[in-house]
Amino acid sequence: MSQTESPRKPLEVRCPSCGEMHLYSTDNPYRPFCSKGCKAIDLGAWASEEYRFEAKPNRDELLEDLTDDPGH
Ligand SMILES: [Zn+2]
């Protein structure tokens, strides 16, 4: 018998963290990430406040800028 292609192609997914294509496997406890490291990075980013700080302008700084003008 010769090797034939499997009718079911393994599902490949892109790791949301590093962007690498990898096989989506139920054996992978870190899916849809490719590895433990990538999952940790992603969860860490969302858990931290850094995302929000970077997304929004510093409001206090803006207010200070406006109130810093003593009188026009
Ligand atoms: Zn990855």
Automatic annotation (TrEMBL):
Record: residues binding Zn(2+): C15, C18, C34, C38
SUPFAM superfamilies named among the record's database cross-references: Glucocorticoid receptor-like (DNA-binding domain)
A GO term, aspect molecular function: DNA topoisomerase type II (double strand cut, ATP-hydrolyzing) inhibitor activity
InterPro entries in the record: DNA_gyrase_inhibitor_YacG (IPR005584), Znf_NHR/GATA (IPR013088)
Keyword Metal-binding among record annotations: yes
The keyword Zinc appears for this protein: yes
Cofactor binding: number and manner: Binds 1 zinc ion.
Any Gene Ontology biological process: regulation of DNA-templated transcription
Membrane-spanning segments: none
Cofactor (UniProt): Zn(2+)
One protein family per Pfam: YacG
Keywords, ordered alphabetically: Metal-binding, Zinc
Quaternary structure (record): Interacts with GyrB.
Family: Belongs to the DNA gyrase inhibitor YacG family.
PANTHER family: DNA GYRASE INHIBITOR YACG
Its job: Inhibits all the catalytic activities of DNA gyrase by preventing its interaction with DNA. Acts by binding directly to the C-terminal domain of GyrB, which probably disrupts DNA binding by the gyrase.
Protein name (record): DNA gyrase inhibitor YacG
Organism for this UniProt entry: Aquabacterium olei
Gene: yacG
